[in-house]
User: What shape does this take?
Amino acid sequence: MIQIWRLPRGNNTLKGEQLVQMEMTLKGHQDVVWSLATHDTLNDKLLSGSSDGTIRLWSLKDGVGEECLKIDVPFNGVPVSCAFNPTNAGQCAYGMMDDLSASVCCVDLSTKQSLGSHRFTDGSGDARERMYIYQIAAHPKHSNTIISAHEDGRLRVTDFRSGKCEAEIIVSNDDAASCVGIDPSSGQHVYAGSHNGTVRVFSLGERKMVQDITSAHLRHFDESVNAICYGDGALVTAGSDAIINVYRHVQLK
Assistant: This one.
């Protein structure tokens, strides 16, 4: 089940539970929902990925939620993270776990046909555990590029059209790379969080770290930084310590 909540706009005097109101409930998934995604040009659409092995597209018009598309992912996989392609709202990128390994894929939403994919494996017996995908981000400028965050502490930059992993970026040597995002304005920087509590910003072109925020979040339940996003000059992180941090002087140059 997915619930959509309405947030207040502008200055108001509302307090407590009056600040947010549940607008609609979306029912259709048969198991845990792992990921939700929106697109800047599609205000009335929502993507979701679930352990039931499906990605679903929802219409949110006129305050009514309705399922308008269901995609079954291959190999009995679980789409753990999904995103619209920022350069083409008719495409969906997703990270998937199956019985053998992890994959990143892209699919055409109108035809449900695969546009390309890459499977992460090195032939070792523990490849699935090390390659586990926590989150993917679709590049806002390069339409074929997906960046994924993995259990082994690395980000992987993949061209889904060619099916090649083009680069690896080390976020942490001692814990998982738990979340990832890309600077939406230029696409030149990628930011990532780790379950060791750090947040790091990297230059994609130079493949080097340009900013390091240590001890961003405390560790609880073997987790730390769970979500990250950047916009309007601020980097925002959320952690398992039940804290949201806003870093307002992070400049991506």
